[in-house]
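Objective 1b: paired records.
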Amino acid sequence: MFSVYSPVLNELSQLVLDTFNAEKNTVKASQKDKYDYVTNVDNVLQSRIICFLNSRFPEHDAYGEEAMPKELELVKPTWVIDPLDGTSNFLFDVPFYGCSLALIAEGDVKVAFVMDFINQEVFTAFRGEGAFLNGIRLNSIESQSDYIGVSSGYLEHLALHNPDYLLTLRQNGKFRILGSQALHLCYVASGRFKACINYEAKIWDDIAGALIVEESGGYYCSEVGFSTKSISLKHTDQNLQSAAFISKELIESGGFNTKNNSVFKV
Protein backbone atom coordinates (compact mmCIF):
# COMPACT_ATOMS: atom_id res chain seq x y z
CA MET A 1 0.00 0.00 0.00
CA PHE A 2 2.72 2.46 1.02
CA SER A 3 4.88 1.76 -2.02
CA VAL A 4 1.97 2.27 -4.41
CA TYR A 5 0.29 5.32 -2.91
CA SER A 6 3.04 7.26 -1.13
CA PRO A 7 4.61 8.61 -4.36
CA VAL A 8 1.14 9.56 -5.62
CA LEU A 9 0.36 11.46 -2.41
CA ASN A 10 3.69 13.26 -2.60
CA GLU A 11 2.80 14.45 -6.09
CA LEU A 12 -0.73 15.31 -5.00
CA SER A 13 0.47 17.39 -2.04
CA GLN A 14 2.38 19.68 -4.36
CA LEU A 15 -0.60 20.01 -6.69
CA VAL A 16 -2.89 20.87 -3.76
CA LEU A 17 -0.49 23.45 -2.36
CA ASP A 18 0.14 25.07 -5.76
CA THR A 19 -3.58 25.23 -6.49
CA PHE A 20 -4.37 26.73 -3.11
CA ASN A 21 -1.67 29.38 -3.44
CA ALA A 22 -2.88 30.29 -6.93
CA GLU A 23 -6.50 30.72 -5.84
CA LYS A 24 -6.36 32.03 -2.27
CA ASN A 25 -6.15 35.74 -3.11
CA THR A 26 -9.28 35.89 -5.31
CA VAL A 27 -11.94 34.52 -3.01
CA LYS A 28 -15.63 34.37 -3.88
CA ALA A 29 -17.88 32.92 -1.19
CA SER A 30 -21.49 31.86 -0.80
CA GLN A 31 -23.38 30.60 2.23
CA LYS A 32 -24.57 26.98 2.20
CA ASP A 33 -26.16 27.06 5.62
CA LYS A 34 -25.98 29.04 8.84
CA TYR A 35 -22.28 29.42 9.69
CA ASP A 36 -21.38 27.20 6.71
CA TYR A 37 -19.73 28.55 3.57
CA VAL A 38 -18.27 27.43 0.28
CA THR A 39 -15.73 29.35 -1.80
CA ASN A 40 -14.26 29.14 -5.26
CA VAL A 41 -11.14 27.75 -3.59
CA ASP A 42 -13.11 24.73 -2.34
CA ASN A 43 -14.48 24.11 -5.82
CA VAL A 44 -11.23 24.56 -7.71
CA LEU A 45 -9.31 22.35 -5.29
CA GLN A 46 -11.97 19.67 -5.53
CA SER A 47 -11.94 19.74 -9.34
CA ARG A 48 -8.14 19.58 -9.58
CA ILE A 49 -7.87 16.75 -7.06
CA ILE A 50 -10.53 14.66 -8.80
CA CYS A 51 -8.89 15.24 -12.19
CA PHE A 52 -5.55 14.19 -10.75
CA LEU A 53 -6.97 11.02 -9.16
CA ASN A 54 -8.88 10.14 -12.33
CA SER A 55 -5.68 10.42 -14.34
CA ARG A 56 -3.75 8.16 -11.95
CA PHE A 57 -6.53 5.71 -11.12
CA PRO A 58 -9.14 5.70 -13.90
CA GLU A 59 -10.73 2.59 -12.41
CA HIS A 60 -11.53 4.46 -9.15
CA ASP A 61 -14.44 6.74 -8.23
CA ALA A 62 -13.75 10.11 -6.55
CA TYR A 63 -16.21 12.39 -4.77
CA GLY A 64 -15.70 15.70 -3.01
CA GLU A 65 -17.76 17.37 -0.29
CA GLU A 66 -19.14 19.98 -2.67
CA ALA A 67 -20.61 17.34 -5.01
CA MET A 68 -21.08 14.37 -2.69
CA PRO A 69 -23.86 11.89 -3.53
CA LYS A 70 -26.30 11.21 -0.70
CA GLU A 71 -25.24 7.56 -0.78
CA LEU A 72 -21.88 6.00 -1.61
CA GLU A 73 -22.20 2.84 -3.69
CA LEU A 74 -18.59 1.74 -3.11
CA VAL A 75 -18.70 -0.70 -5.99
CA LYS A 76 -15.26 0.51 -7.07
CA PRO A 77 -12.36 1.81 -4.98
CA THR A 78 -13.59 5.25 -3.93
CA TRP A 79 -11.85 8.45 -2.86
CA VAL A 80 -13.69 10.74 -0.43
CA ILE A 81 -12.38 14.31 -0.50
CA ASP A 82 -12.78 17.39 1.66
CA PRO A 83 -11.00 19.99 -0.48
CA LEU A 84 -10.95 22.72 2.18
CA ASP A 85 -11.68 21.62 5.73
CA GLY A 86 -12.13 24.77 7.78
CA THR A 87 -13.61 26.95 5.05
CA SER A 88 -14.95 29.49 7.56
CA ASN A 89 -11.49 29.82 9.09
CA PHE A 90 -10.05 30.41 5.64
CA LEU A 91 -12.74 32.92 4.74
CA PHE A 92 -12.31 34.95 7.93
CA ASP A 93 -8.50 34.69 7.92
CA VAL A 94 -8.17 32.36 10.90
CA PRO A 95 -5.01 30.40 10.07
CA PHE A 96 -6.16 26.81 10.63
CA TYR A 97 -7.54 24.84 7.69
CA GLY A 98 -6.54 21.97 5.47
CA CYS A 99 -7.37 19.46 2.77
CA SER A 100 -8.16 15.79 3.34
CA LEU A 101 -8.90 12.68 1.32
CA ALA A 102 -9.12 8.96 1.87
CA LEU A 103 -9.38 5.83 -0.25
CA ILE A 104 -12.02 3.19 0.49
CA ALA A 105 -11.39 -0.21 -1.08
CA GLU A 106 -12.67 -3.71 -0.28
CA GLY A 107 -14.89 -2.29 2.45
CA ASP A 108 -12.36 -0.37 4.52
CA VAL A 109 -10.20 2.75 4.45
CA LYS A 110 -6.80 1.96 2.97
CA VAL A 111 -5.08 5.34 2.52
CA ALA A 112 -5.45 8.76 4.18
CA PHE A 113 -3.99 12.18 3.47
CA VAL A 114 -4.43 15.50 5.33
CA MET A 115 -2.55 18.70 4.50
CA ASP A 116 -2.30 21.69 6.84
CA PHE A 117 -2.02 24.63 4.45
CA ILE A 118 -0.64 27.11 6.98
CA ASN A 119 2.06 24.95 8.55
CA GLN A 120 2.65 22.92 5.37
CA GLU A 121 2.38 19.70 7.31
CA VAL A 122 1.25 16.54 5.54
CA PHE A 123 -0.26 13.71 7.56
CA THR A 124 -0.63 10.33 5.86
CA ALA A 125 -1.63 6.81 6.83
CA PHE A 126 -1.62 3.44 5.11
CA ARG A 127 -3.67 0.52 6.42
CA GLY A 128 -1.40 -1.74 8.49
CA GLU A 129 1.71 0.30 7.71
CA GLY A 130 1.50 3.27 10.07
CA ALA A 131 0.79 6.99 10.14
CA PHE A 132 3.26 9.73 9.27
CA LEU A 133 3.82 13.46 9.58
CA ASN A 134 6.02 14.76 6.77
CA GLY A 135 7.39 11.23 6.45
CA ILE A 136 8.13 10.73 10.17
CA ARG A 137 6.20 7.93 11.86
CA LEU A 138 3.61 9.03 14.45
CA ASN A 139 2.94 7.47 17.84
CA SER A 140 0.03 9.09 19.67
CA ILE A 141 0.62 7.24 22.95
CA GLU A 142 3.71 9.36 23.62
CA SER A 143 1.47 12.40 24.14
CA GLN A 144 1.65 14.50 27.29
CA SER A 145 -1.00 16.95 26.08
CA ASP A 146 -3.88 18.15 28.27
CA TYR A 147 -5.89 19.51 25.33
CA ILE A 148 -9.27 18.14 24.26
CA GLY A 149 -10.51 19.29 20.87
CA VAL A 150 -14.27 19.80 20.78
CA SER A 151 -16.78 21.05 18.23
CA SER A 152 -19.47 23.69 18.61
CA GLY A 153 -22.07 21.03 17.90
CA TYR A 154 -20.81 18.82 20.73
CA LEU A 155 -20.91 21.68 23.23
CA GLU A 156 -24.45 22.48 22.09
CA HIS A 157 -25.39 18.79 22.47
CA LEU A 158 -24.12 18.74 26.06
CA ALA A 159 -25.72 22.10 26.91
CA LEU A 160 -29.09 20.76 25.79
CA HIS A 161 -28.91 17.19 27.06
CA ASN A 162 -26.28 16.86 29.79
CA PRO A 163 -24.72 20.15 30.91
CA ASP A 164 -23.25 18.52 34.03
CA TYR A 165 -20.94 16.42 31.86
CA LEU A 166 -19.13 19.58 30.75
CA LEU A 167 -17.53 19.75 34.20
CA THR A 168 -16.44 16.10 33.99
CA LEU A 169 -14.92 16.73 30.60
CA ARG A 170 -13.20 19.90 31.82
CA GLN A 171 -11.62 17.95 34.67
CA ASN A 172 -9.85 15.83 32.04
CA GLY A 173 -8.23 18.72 30.18
CA LYS A 174 -8.52 22.12 28.52
CA PHE A 175 -10.93 22.62 25.60
CA ARG A 176 -9.82 23.74 22.17
CA ILE A 177 -12.06 24.52 19.16
CA LEU A 178 -9.74 25.11 16.20
CA GLY A 179 -12.27 24.77 13.38
CA SER A 180 -10.94 21.91 11.25
CA GLN A 181 -12.05 18.41 12.20
CA ALA A 182 -9.51 16.67 9.97
CA LEU A 183 -6.69 18.57 11.68
CA HIS A 184 -8.23 17.99 15.12
CA LEU A 185 -7.96 14.25 14.45
CA CYS A 186 -4.40 14.62 13.18
CA TYR A 187 -3.55 16.51 16.35
CA VAL A 188 -4.69 13.47 18.35
CA ALA A 189 -2.57 11.22 16.12
CA SER A 190 0.47 13.44 16.67
CA GLY A 191 -0.14 13.77 20.42
CA ARG A 192 -0.89 17.49 20.34
CA PHE A 193 -4.39 16.71 21.66
CA LYS A 194 -5.22 13.89 24.07
CA ALA A 195 -8.71 13.61 22.57
CA CYS A 196 -11.17 15.25 20.22
CA ILE A 197 -14.97 15.01 20.20
CA ASN A 198 -17.31 16.13 17.43
CA TYR A 199 -21.08 15.78 17.13
CA GLU A 200 -21.74 17.15 13.65
CA ALA A 201 -18.83 15.77 11.59
CA LYS A 202 -19.73 14.12 8.30
CA ILE A 203 -17.92 11.28 6.55
CA TRP A 204 -15.66 13.63 4.56
CA ASP A 205 -14.60 15.39 7.78
CA ASP A 206 -13.52 12.23 9.60
CA ILE A 207 -12.59 9.53 7.15
CA ALA A 208 -8.94 10.45 6.59
CA GLY A 209 -8.16 11.62 10.12
CA ALA A 210 -9.76 8.52 11.64
CA LEU A 211 -7.33 6.20 9.85
CA ILE A 212 -4.41 8.46 10.78
CA VAL A 213 -5.47 8.26 14.44
CA GLU A 214 -5.75 4.47 14.35
CA GLU A 215 -2.48 3.92 12.50
CA SER A 216 -0.69 6.14 15.05
CA GLY A 217 -1.88 3.86 17.87
CA GLY A 218 -4.90 5.94 18.86
CA TYR A 219 -8.57 5.02 19.20
CA TYR A 220 -11.45 6.31 17.07
CA CYS A 221 -15.15 5.60 17.57
CA SER A 222 -18.49 6.82 16.24
CA GLU A 223 -21.88 6.77 17.94
CA VAL A 224 -23.58 5.79 14.67
CA GLY A 225 -21.21 2.93 13.93
CA PHE A 226 -18.90 4.52 11.38
CA SER A 227 -15.62 2.62 11.27
CA THR A 228 -12.59 2.73 9.00
CA LYS A 229 -12.44 -1.07 9.17
CA SER A 230 -15.89 -1.71 7.75
CA ILE A 231 -17.59 1.06 5.81
CA SER A 232 -21.27 0.41 6.39
CA LEU A 233 -22.33 4.05 6.67
CA LYS A 234 -23.42 5.01 3.19
CA HIS A 235 -25.62 8.02 3.93
CA THR A 236 -23.17 10.87 3.63
CA ASP A 237 -25.26 13.53 5.38
CA GLN A 238 -25.37 11.71 8.71
CA ASN A 239 -23.73 13.24 11.80
CA LEU A 240 -21.03 10.78 12.86
CA GLN A 241 -20.95 11.79 16.56
CA SER A 242 -17.32 10.78 16.77
CA ALA A 243 -14.52 10.79 19.29
CA ALA A 244 -10.80 10.06 19.14
CA PHE A 245 -8.31 9.44 21.91
CA ILE A 246 -4.55 8.96 22.01
CA SER A 247 -5.27 5.40 23.21
CA LYS A 248 -8.24 3.18 23.98
CA GLU A 249 -6.90 2.86 27.52
CA LEU A 250 -7.49 6.58 28.06
CA ILE A 251 -11.25 6.28 27.56
CA GLU A 252 -11.43 2.89 29.34
CA SER A 253 -9.56 4.16 32.41
CA GLY A 254 -12.72 5.75 33.81
CA GLY A 255 -11.52 9.32 33.96
CA PHE A 256 -14.07 10.44 31.39
CA ASN A 257 -16.85 8.74 33.41
CA THR A 258 -18.56 7.29 30.35
CA LYS A 259 -21.04 4.50 29.74
CA ASN A 260 -19.81 1.93 27.19
CA ASN A 261 -16.98 4.31 26.22
CA SER A 262 -19.48 6.86 24.85
CA VAL A 263 -18.99 10.58 25.46
CA PHE A 264 -22.44 11.20 23.99
CA LYS A 265 -24.61 8.93 26.19
CA VAL A 266 -23.34 10.08 29.58
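Objective 1b, second protein:
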Amino acid sequence: MPKIFTHYDNLKVSRDAPQEVIEAAFRSLEQKYAPSKFQGSREVAERMLLIRRAYEVLSDPELRQEHDAWIRREERTLAEAEAHHAAGQARNLSQSQPTEIKRAMPRRNNNSPLRLFKRNFAEHWHYYAMALGLGYVVLANFTGVMPSWTDTPAYSQQPLQAFKQQPAPVIHYQRPVSTPYGYPWPKEADYLAGSTQLNQSGLSSVTVDNTLSANDYHVKLVYLDAPQAYPVRDMYIPAHAMFKVERINAGHYDLRYRNLDTGELVRSDPLTLYETYVDSTRTFQNLKVTLYSVAHGNMQTHPIREKEF
Protein backbone atom coordinates (compact mmCIF):
# COMPACT_ATOMS: atom_id res chain seq x y z
CA MET A 1 0.00 0.00 0.00
CA PRO A 2 1.30 3.52 -0.75
CA LYS A 3 2.90 5.31 2.21
CA ILE A 4 1.31 8.45 3.63
CA PHE A 5 3.82 11.18 4.54
CA THR A 6 2.95 12.30 8.07
CA HIS A 7 4.20 14.35 11.01
CA TYR A 8 5.77 11.14 12.32
CA ASP A 9 7.93 11.04 9.18
CA ASN A 10 8.97 14.65 9.69
CA LEU A 11 10.24 13.77 13.19
CA LYS A 12 11.54 10.34 12.07
CA VAL A 13 9.66 8.43 14.78
CA SER A 14 7.22 5.54 14.71
CA ARG A 15 3.47 6.12 15.03
CA ASP A 16 3.38 4.51 18.48
CA ALA A 17 6.34 6.51 19.79
CA PRO A 18 5.87 7.68 23.42
CA GLN A 19 6.03 11.35 24.30
CA GLU A 20 9.63 11.25 25.56
CA VAL A 21 10.80 9.79 22.22
CA ILE A 22 8.98 12.53 20.31
CA GLU A 23 10.57 15.16 22.57
CA ALA A 24 14.06 13.71 22.07
CA ALA A 25 13.61 13.45 18.30
CA PHE A 26 12.51 17.08 18.05
CA ARG A 27 15.49 18.34 20.12
CA SER A 28 17.91 16.32 17.99
CA LEU A 29 16.49 17.64 14.70
CA GLU A 30 16.34 21.16 16.07
CA GLN A 31 20.08 21.03 16.73
CA LYS A 32 20.81 19.38 13.39
CA TYR A 33 19.00 22.07 11.38
CA ALA A 34 19.80 25.05 13.59
CA PRO A 35 19.56 28.33 11.57
CA SER A 36 23.07 29.28 12.68
CA LYS A 37 24.45 26.32 10.73
CA PHE A 38 22.55 27.03 7.51
CA GLN A 39 22.20 30.78 7.21
CA GLY A 40 20.24 31.82 4.13
CA SER A 41 19.13 28.28 3.22
CA ARG A 42 15.46 28.39 2.22
CA GLU A 43 15.25 24.59 2.09
CA VAL A 44 16.48 24.20 5.66
CA ALA A 45 14.14 26.95 6.85
CA GLU A 46 11.15 25.15 5.27
CA ARG A 47 12.28 21.86 6.79
CA MET A 48 12.46 23.42 10.26
CA LEU A 49 8.94 24.79 9.84
CA LEU A 50 7.71 21.27 9.10
CA ILE A 51 9.62 19.84 12.07
CA ARG A 52 8.23 22.44 14.48
CA ARG A 53 4.69 21.91 13.22
CA ALA A 54 5.08 18.14 13.55
CA TYR A 55 6.22 18.57 17.15
CA GLU A 56 3.30 20.92 17.92
CA VAL A 57 0.82 18.32 16.68
CA LEU A 58 2.39 15.19 18.16
CA SER A 59 3.05 16.76 21.56
CA ASP A 60 -0.64 17.70 21.90
CA PRO A 61 -2.75 14.56 22.65
CA GLU A 62 -5.87 15.96 21.01
CA LEU A 63 -4.11 17.14 17.87
CA ARG A 64 -2.20 13.87 17.66
CA GLN A 65 -5.44 11.91 17.84
CA GLU A 66 -6.89 13.99 14.99
CA HIS A 67 -3.72 13.43 12.96
CA ASP A 68 -3.89 9.66 13.50
CA ALA A 69 -7.52 9.64 12.33
CA TRP A 70 -6.53 11.58 9.18
CA ILE A 71 -3.76 9.02 8.47
CA ARG A 72 -6.23 6.14 8.70
CA ARG A 73 -8.65 7.85 6.32
CA GLU A 74 -5.90 8.57 3.78
CA GLU A 75 -4.55 5.01 3.93
CA ARG A 76 -8.02 3.61 3.45
CA THR A 77 -8.61 5.89 0.45
CA LEU A 78 -5.26 4.99 -1.13
CA ALA A 79 -5.82 1.28 -0.51
CA GLU A 80 -9.19 1.49 -2.27
CA ALA A 81 -7.62 3.38 -5.17
CA GLU A 82 -4.80 0.83 -5.45
CA ALA A 83 -7.27 -2.06 -5.37
CA HIS A 84 -9.40 -0.36 -8.04
CA HIS A 85 -6.32 0.18 -10.20
CA ALA A 86 -5.16 -3.44 -9.78
CA ALA A 87 -8.63 -4.74 -10.62
CA GLY A 88 -8.69 -2.64 -13.79
CA GLN A 89 -5.30 -4.00 -14.85
CA ALA A 90 -6.39 -7.59 -14.20
CA ARG A 91 -9.57 -6.99 -16.21
CA ASN A 92 -7.62 -5.55 -19.15
CA LEU A 93 -5.15 -8.46 -19.02
CA SER A 94 -7.93 -11.05 -19.03
CA GLN A 95 -9.54 -9.36 -22.03
CA SER A 96 -6.30 -9.11 -24.02
CA GLN A 97 -4.92 -12.64 -23.34
CA PRO A 98 -6.71 -15.58 -25.04
CA THR A 99 -7.74 -18.45 -22.78
CA GLU A 100 -5.77 -21.60 -23.47
CA ILE A 101 -8.02 -24.65 -23.65
CA LYS A 102 -6.31 -28.00 -23.28
CA ARG A 103 -8.11 -30.99 -24.71
CA ALA A 104 -7.29 -34.57 -23.92
CA MET A 105 -5.87 -36.28 -27.01
CA PRO A 106 -7.22 -39.75 -27.81
CA ARG A 107 -4.77 -42.57 -27.40
CA ARG A 108 -3.14 -43.41 -30.71
CA ASN A 109 -4.02 -46.81 -32.21
CA ASN A 110 -0.75 -48.22 -33.51
CA ASN A 111 -2.53 -51.09 -35.29
CA SER A 112 -4.96 -49.06 -37.40
CA PRO A 113 -5.25 -50.10 -41.11
CA LEU A 114 -3.69 -46.84 -42.29
CA ARG A 115 -0.63 -47.26 -40.05
CA LEU A 116 -0.25 -50.92 -41.11
CA PHE A 117 -0.32 -49.83 -44.78
CA LYS A 118 2.26 -47.10 -44.21
CA ARG A 119 4.59 -49.48 -42.39
CA ASN A 120 4.20 -52.15 -45.09
CA PHE A 121 4.79 -49.60 -47.90
CA ALA A 122 7.95 -48.31 -46.23
CA GLU A 123 9.38 -51.84 -46.09
CA HIS A 124 8.37 -53.02 -49.62
CA TRP A 125 8.14 -49.83 -51.69
CA HIS A 126 10.26 -51.29 -54.56
CA TYR A 127 7.64 -53.98 -55.21
CA TYR A 128 4.94 -51.33 -55.49
CA ALA A 129 7.10 -49.39 -57.94
CA MET A 130 7.64 -52.42 -60.14
CA ALA A 131 3.90 -53.22 -60.19
CA LEU A 132 3.07 -49.62 -61.09
CA GLY A 133 5.56 -49.64 -64.01
CA LEU A 134 4.25 -52.96 -65.36
CA GLY A 135 0.69 -51.66 -65.20
CA TYR A 136 1.68 -48.55 -67.12
CA VAL A 137 3.25 -50.64 -69.97
CA VAL A 138 0.21 -52.92 -70.22
CA LEU A 139 -2.14 -49.93 -70.39
CA ALA A 140 -0.04 -48.36 -73.16
CA ASN A 141 -0.13 -51.56 -75.24
CA PHE A 142 -3.91 -51.77 -75.00
CA THR A 143 -4.57 -48.14 -75.90
CA GLY A 144 -1.77 -47.67 -78.39
CA VAL A 145 -0.90 -44.37 -76.80
CA MET A 146 2.45 -43.77 -75.18
CA PRO A 147 2.48 -40.26 -73.81
CA SER A 148 5.68 -38.29 -74.09
CA TRP A 149 7.33 -37.09 -70.91
CA THR A 150 8.32 -33.92 -72.72
CA ASP A 151 4.80 -32.80 -73.69
CA THR A 152 4.51 -30.64 -70.61
CA PRO A 153 7.48 -28.69 -69.28
CA ALA A 154 8.51 -29.42 -65.74
CA TYR A 155 8.18 -25.73 -64.85
CA SER A 156 5.97 -22.95 -66.13
CA GLN A 157 7.48 -20.96 -68.98
CA GLN A 158 5.75 -17.81 -67.77
CA PRO A 159 8.20 -15.24 -66.38
CA LEU A 160 8.18 -14.94 -62.62
CA GLN A 161 6.68 -11.79 -61.18
CA ALA A 162 8.33 -10.11 -58.24
CA PHE A 163 6.28 -10.37 -55.05
CA LYS A 164 4.91 -6.96 -54.21
CA GLN A 165 4.81 -6.45 -50.47
CA GLN A 166 1.72 -4.67 -49.26
CA PRO A 167 2.36 -1.77 -46.92
CA ALA A 168 1.23 -2.14 -43.31
CA PRO A 169 -2.23 -0.69 -42.76
CA VAL A 170 -2.21 2.82 -41.33
CA ILE A 171 -4.22 3.10 -38.14
CA HIS A 172 -5.92 6.47 -38.11
CA TYR A 173 -6.82 8.07 -34.81
CA GLN A 174 -10.52 8.62 -34.22
CA ARG A 175 -11.71 11.01 -31.57
CA PRO A 176 -13.64 9.09 -28.87
CA VAL A 177 -17.32 9.93 -28.79
CA SER A 178 -17.59 9.28 -25.04
CA THR A 179 -15.36 9.33 -21.96
CA PRO A 180 -13.57 6.19 -20.68
CA TYR A 181 -16.41 5.88 -18.16
CA GLY A 182 -19.07 5.68 -20.86
CA TYR A 183 -20.52 9.17 -20.38
CA PRO A 184 -20.65 12.05 -22.90
CA TRP A 185 -17.82 14.56 -22.69
CA PRO A 186 -18.76 17.59 -20.55
CA LYS A 187 -19.91 20.71 -22.34
CA GLU A 188 -17.38 22.79 -20.41
CA ALA A 189 -14.22 22.25 -18.36
CA ASP A 190 -15.06 19.82 -15.56
CA TYR A 191 -14.22 16.53 -13.89
CA LEU A 192 -15.35 13.46 -15.85
CA ALA A 193 -18.59 11.88 -14.64
CA GLY A 194 -17.86 8.53 -13.01
CA SER A 195 -14.26 9.39 -12.05
CA THR A 196 -13.01 9.30 -8.44
CA GLN A 197 -11.35 12.34 -6.86
CA LEU A 198 -8.51 11.44 -4.48
CA ASN A 199 -5.98 13.33 -2.31
CA GLN A 200 -8.57 15.97 -1.36
CA SER A 201 -7.49 16.89 2.16
CA GLY A 202 -4.90 19.52 1.15
CA LEU A 203 -5.20 23.21 0.34
CA SER A 204 -2.94 23.49 -2.73
CA SER A 205 -4.28 23.90 -6.25
CA VAL A 206 -3.17 23.57 -9.88
CA THR A 207 -4.76 25.71 -12.57
CA VAL A 208 -4.65 24.11 -16.03
CA ASP A 209 -4.70 26.82 -18.71
CA ASN A 210 -5.90 25.93 -22.22
CA THR A 211 -7.12 29.39 -23.18
CA LEU A 212 -4.75 29.90 -26.13
CA SER A 213 -5.18 26.44 -27.65
CA ALA A 214 -7.69 25.44 -30.33
CA ASN A 215 -7.72 21.78 -29.18
CA ASP A 216 -9.73 19.91 -26.56
CA TYR A 217 -7.83 17.88 -23.94
CA HIS A 218 -8.46 14.92 -21.65
CA VAL A 219 -6.24 15.67 -18.63
CA LYS A 220 -5.19 13.60 -15.59
CA LEU A 221 -3.41 14.76 -12.45
CA VAL A 222 -1.19 11.81 -11.47
CA TYR A 223 0.23 11.19 -7.97
CA LEU A 224 3.91 10.13 -8.11
CA ASP A 225 4.79 9.36 -4.46
CA ALA A 226 3.20 5.89 -4.42
CA PRO A 227 5.09 2.73 -5.51
CA GLN A 228 3.01 2.91 -8.69
CA ALA A 229 1.80 6.26 -9.98
CA TYR A 230 -1.96 6.65 -10.25
CA PRO A 231 -4.39 9.43 -11.26
CA VAL A 232 -6.12 11.41 -8.53
CA ARG A 233 -8.16 13.73 -10.79
CA ASP A 234 -9.59 13.08 -14.27
CA MET A 235 -10.93 16.04 -16.23
CA TYR A 236 -11.93 17.50 -19.59
CA ILE A 237 -10.68 20.92 -20.68
CA PRO A 238 -11.99 22.20 -24.03
CA ALA A 239 -10.28 24.68 -26.31
CA HIS A 240 -9.96 28.26 -24.97
CA ALA A 241 -10.90 27.15 -21.42
CA MET A 242 -9.26 26.96 -18.01
CA PHE A 243 -9.83 24.65 -15.05
CA LYS A 244 -8.67 24.88 -11.42
CA VAL A 245 -7.93 21.63 -9.57
CA GLU A 246 -8.39 22.40 -5.87
CA ARG A 247 -7.87 20.78 -2.45
CA ILE A 248 -4.78 18.78 -3.43
CA ASN A 249 -2.59 17.10 -0.82
CA ALA A 250 1.09 17.98 -0.61
CA GLY A 251 3.30 15.72 -2.71
CA HIS A 252 4.73 15.17 -6.17
CA TYR A 253 2.49 15.04 -9.23
CA ASP A 254 2.52 15.44 -12.99
CA LEU A 255 -0.11 16.24 -15.61
CA ARG A 256 -0.78 13.72 -18.37
CA TYR A 257 -3.03 14.73 -21.21
CA ARG A 258 -4.37 13.60 -24.55
CA ASN A 259 -5.10 15.96 -27.41
CA LEU A 260 -8.60 14.77 -28.32
CA ASP A 261 -8.25 16.19 -31.84
CA THR A 262 -4.95 14.48 -32.75
CA GLY A 263 -4.59 11.68 -30.19
CA GLU A 264 -1.15 12.93 -29.06
CA LEU A 265 -0.20 11.85 -25.51
CA VAL A 266 2.28 13.81 -23.35
CA ARG A 267 3.11 14.47 -19.71
CA SER A 268 4.46 17.52 -17.92
CA ASP A 269 7.55 17.84 -15.77
CA PRO A 270 6.92 16.78 -12.14
CA LEU A 271 5.04 19.29 -9.98
CA THR A 272 5.87 19.63 -6.28
CA LEU A 273 3.20 20.91 -3.91
CA TYR A 274 4.30 22.01 -0.43
CA GLU A 275 2.28 22.81 2.66
CA THR A 276 4.02 24.52 5.56
CA TYR A 277 3.10 26.18 8.85
CA VAL A 278 4.38 29.61 9.80
CA ASP A 279 3.29 30.93 13.19
CA SER A 280 0.40 28.42 13.25
CA THR A 281 -0.66 29.63 9.81
CA ARG A 282 -0.92 26.98 7.11
CA THR A 283 0.64 28.06 3.85
CA PHE A 284 0.19 26.22 0.55
CA GLN A 285 0.83 26.53 -3.20
CA ASN A 286 -1.23 27.59 -6.20
CA LEU A 287 0.46 26.52 -9.45
CA LYS A 288 -0.51 27.28 -13.03
CA VAL A 289 0.31 25.01 -15.97
CA THR A 290 -0.42 25.78 -19.63
CA LEU A 291 -1.30 23.14 -22.23
CA TYR A 292 0.23 25.26 -24.99
CA SER A 293 3.78 26.46 -25.59
CA VAL A 294 4.84 29.65 -23.86
CA ALA A 295 7.85 31.71 -24.88
CA HIS A 296 10.63 31.37 -22.29
CA GLY A 297 8.49 28.91 -20.31
CA ASN A 298 10.09 26.64 -17.70
CA MET A 299 7.88 23.58 -18.18
CA GLN A 300 8.74 20.81 -20.64
CA THR A 301 6.46 18.08 -22.04
CA HIS A 302 7.43 14.48 -22.77
CA PRO A 303 5.71 11.92 -25.06
CA ILE A 304 4.17 8.92 -23.27
CA ARG A 305 2.65 5.61 -24.32
CA GLU A 306 -0.99 4.66 -24.02
CA LYS A 307 -0.44 2.45 -20.96
CA GLU A 308 1.22 5.38 -19.13
CA PHE A 309 -1.82 7.61 -19.57
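DSSP finds six helices and twelve strands in the chain. Confidence is low (pLDDT under 50) at residues 99-105, 149-170.
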